[in-house]
Amino acid sequence: MSVTHYLVLAAILFTIGAVGVLVRRNAIVVFMCIELMLNSVNLTLVTFARATGTIDGQIMAFFVMVVAAAEVVVGLAIIMSIYRTRRSASVDDANLLKY
Amino acid sequence: MLSTYVPIVGLFALAAAFALFSVAVAPFVGPRRYNRAKLEAYECGIEPVDQPLHGGRFPVKYYLTAMLFIVFDIEIVFLYPWAVANDALGVFGLVEMVVFIGTVFLAYAYVWRRGGLEWD
Amino acid sequence: MTIEAPDLSLAALAPLLFVFGAACIGVLVEAFGPRDSRHPVQVAVALVGTLGGLVTTVLLAGTREVTAGGALAVDGAGLFLQATIAGLGALSLLLFAERNLDPARSAFVVSAAVPAGSVRDRELLTVQRVQTEVYPLATFAIGGMMLFVTANDLLVMFVALEVLSLPLYLISGLARRRRLLSQEAAVKYFLLGSFASAFFLYGVALVYGATGTVRLAGVREAVAGAEGGTLVVLGLALLVVGLLFKASVAPFHTWTPDVYQGAPTPVTAFMAACTKVAAFGAILRLLYVAFGTEEWTWRPLVYGVAIVSMVIGAVLGLTQTDLKRMLAYSSVAHAGFLLTGVLGLPATGDAAGSGLPAVMFYLLAYGLTTLGAFAVLTLVRSGEGEATHLSQWAGLAQRSPLTAAVMSLFLLALAGIPLTSGFTGKFAVFRAAIEDGAWPLALVALLASAVAAFFYLRVIVLMYFSEPAVDGPTVGVPGLPTTIVLAVTAAATLLLGIVPGAVLGLADRAAIFVG
């Protein structure tokens, strides 16, 4: 397995995540897609850490994990508060604000 | 070479001894009060059901607990590299870690005082 | 083996320590302070923190230092922007603290956990209890912004980006009135914001992979040595996209009008003023310090994006009927004007180009003016909260000549009319662009300014030359906090327009990046 394989896998995961954000309708699923993007970045980071022989990438992966956890908490709180009011987590229903 | 692993073997032995001791002693010294809940398949946690039992939704408390767990759980990740490199980092690392844990405790104090840890 | 402890200059970190310290104390006050006295204490703590941050940045003036193991660059430009953020942040906190305007004595919801529209929610609507968690949250956001503009390392930049964003997502969902709109704004801001930070992060990973380092100076060396190639370009593009999103530059602006409209107006003011400064600070540092030698890679991108942003902001601003949305599109257009200044950055090392000080001055001037404009919006109210629809502002000058006059001043400044700070700022950035040979861009910018001026002037005409509606809005009497904000921003808007020399000179002297 060369480094490239990991990078390509990470790029594919990132793309799946990005496409998911754009096409899925449920806010929770959109959010999970964003987490997928972050985790694919983690894979890229540790791969590059190995490829370049530096430790920075692994350290960054830790920070990304922590930041992602904080994001989960904030995001779930926001989505939950809107769900409790509307009984729906669909981003299509969130349409009060527009032109 | 192998002597490096002696402490680990010792730790295993200690852990096993503690577990055996606890299991062996508990029936003799512990009180026994049976009730229905204790005889169920899952003694703790929630019964696995597809839908909330009486319709409606799961209480929001589960989310709150899960979110608090995630955020405090992940903070621990910074302790591992520090623990591994503690000797090399010396006092500076210790001070930094105390500062870090201190800020985490700030958040903990907030959650605790505002009732985030109470179930009811 | 021992690892060398990184050098840590506490003096250079003092502004950040002040602000983050205040935020931590704010959390403790939330935890242990008695409920009745929490509000004044929180306001005091937050103001002491931000003003302390402002004072320490002023005391640090002239420092040029890379500290914290190379992770932070405390330099002239960084300190200037830090001071701008701390000052604007303190003014925004004063808007948060206003208690005279809303009949329920606060613009923030009492308990965000209560579902909007429920019985309990309606009970709480008129209760005079106040939400105090917004102060530590806003202080954390200010701290994150101040860290953002001094980050000398892509990882620190990412962490700072999140530290500033996460509290903003939360406080934009905390409006007391029109809670559904506010919550929707929070969800949109959060989903799009984290989408953008994922792009930024992927950019960090690619640049790291190509250059083997995340230090901005290290990246520059590697890039100058022509390592990396495609990966660097891809990484740079992703980084810039993430930052342009935060700066609400079109075509990454779609969240801006929705969030500006839905968020509580003091929070909108805070976002419009401070986030813009922070995002542009980071853009300048990234492009100038890390990719200064790769000028030809990002120049066309910024050139195109600047044009799109100015045109979209100006044209869509024309069609708006809600003042908050209109100011949001104005913010998009101004982001485009700022980017014309970014293009005036010198390509090589230390030579002081006129772009950097111009952008710094523009950020200060725009921040003060837009903060003031949103502060005026909080004054004009109808039964269900703020009256932000354009038609409700008809004939406002007859109801309250002073409010109309102050609002006109801010709108004229946003339009860039001479003798206001907006004119000085625009003149500076356009001159920088022209000096750099980007005169077609400056031409587009002038045209866009003219179009944008139309919708600002339309509001002024409406206020002065229309008959007021019978059931029109009332103009509230602001308490001390909002009065201070209005006085400071109006005075600054005039002073920076009439005698800008001192501040322009300061920006010129401060316009230095180390790292």
Automatic annotation (TrEMBL), chain A:
The gene is nuoK. GO terms for cellular component: NADH dehydrogenase complex; plasma membrane. Keywords: Cell membrane, Membrane, NAD, Quinone, Translocase, Transmembrane, Transmembrane helix, Transport. GO terms for biological process: ATP synthesis coupled electron transport. NDH-1 shuttles electrons from NADH, via FMN and iron-sulfur (Fe-S) centers, to quinones in the respiratory chain. The immediate electron acceptor for the enzyme in this species is believed to be a menaquinone. Couples the redox reaction to proton translocation (for every two electrons transferred, four hydrogen ions are translocated across the cytoplasmic membrane), and thus conserves the redox energy in a proton gradient. The keyword Transport applies. HAMAP family: NDH1_NuoK (MF_01456). It is found in: Cell membrane; Membrane. One of its GO terms (molecular function) is quinone binding. It comes from Geodermatophilus saharensis. It comes from the Bacteria. Its EC number is 7.1.1.-. Belongs to the complex I subunit 4L family. It is a multi-pass membrane protein. Its main location: membrane. The chain crosses the membrane at residues 6-23, 28-49, 61-83. The lineage of its organism: Bacteria, Bacillati, Actinomycetota, Actinomycetes, Geodermatophilales. It catalyses: a quinone + NADH + 5 H(+)(in) = a quinol + NAD(+) + 4 H(+)(out). This is NADH-quinone oxidoreductase subunit K. NDH-1 is composed of 14 different subunits. Subunits NuoA, H, J, K, L, M, N constitute the membrane sector of the complex.
UniProtKB/TrEMBL annotation, chain B:
It is an enzyme of class 7 (translocase). Keywords: Cell membrane, Membrane, NAD, Quinone, Translocase, Transmembrane, Transmembrane helix, Transport. The chain crosses the membrane at residues 6-29, 62-83, 89-111. GO terms for molecular function: NADH dehydrogenase (quinone) (non-electrogenic) activity; NADH dehydrogenase (ubiquinone) activity; quinone binding. It holds the Pfam family Oxidored_q4. It comes from the Bacteria. It is a multi-pass membrane protein. GO terms for cellular component: NADH dehydrogenase complex; plasma membrane. Its EC number is 7.1.1.-. It is found in: Cell membrane; Membrane. It catalyses: a quinone + NADH + 5 H(+)(in) = a quinol + NAD(+) + 4 H(+)(out). NDH-1 is composed of 14 different subunits. Subunits NuoA, H, J, K, L, M, N constitute the membrane sector of the complex. NCBIfam families: PRK07928.1. Belongs to the complex I subunit 3 family. NDH-1 shuttles electrons from NADH, via FMN and iron-sulfur (Fe-S) centers, to quinones in the respiratory chain. The immediate electron acceptor for the enzyme in this species is believed to be a menaquinone. Couples the redox reaction to proton translocation (for every two electrons transferred, four hydrogen ions are translocated across the cytoplasmic membrane), and thus conserves the redox energy in a proton gradient. This is NADH-quinone oxidoreductase subunit A. It comes from Geodermatophilus saharensis.
From TrEMBL, chain C:
Its EC number is 7.1.1.-. It is found in: Cell membrane; Endomembrane system; Membrane. The keyword Transmembrane helix applies. One of its GO terms (cellular component) is plasma membrane. Its main location: membrane. The chain crosses the membrane at residues 12-32, 44-64, 76-97, 132-149, 155-175, 187-210, 222-245, 266-288, 300-319, 326-347, 359-380, 401-419, 439-465, 477-499. InterPro entries: NADH-Q_OxRdtase_suN/2, ND/Mrp_TM. Pfam families: Proton_antipo_M. It is a multi-pass membrane protein. It is an enzyme of class 7 (translocase). It catalyses: a quinone + NADH + 5 H(+)(in) = a quinol + NAD(+) + 4 H(+)(out). One of its GO terms (biological process) is ATP synthesis coupled electron transport. Keywords: Cell membrane, Membrane, NAD, Quinone, Translocase, Transmembrane, Transmembrane helix, Transport. It comes from the Bacteria. GO terms for molecular function: NADH dehydrogenase (quinone) (non-electrogenic) activity; NADH dehydrogenase (ubiquinone) activity; quinone binding. Residues 151-449 form the NADH:quinone oxidoreductase/Mrp antiporter transmembrane domain. PANTHER family: NADH DEHYDROGENASE. NDH-1 shuttles electrons from NADH, via FMN and iron-sulfur (Fe-S) centers, to quinones in the respiratory chain. The immediate electron acceptor for the enzyme in this species is believed to be a menaquinone. Couples the redox reaction to proton translocation (for every two electrons transferred, four hydrogen ions are translocated across the cytoplasmic membrane), and thus conserves the redox energy in a proton gradient. NDH-1 is composed of 14 different subunits. Subunits NuoA, H, J, K, L, M, N constitute the membrane sector of the complex. Belongs to the complex I subunit 2 family. This is NADH-quinone oxidoreductase subunit N.
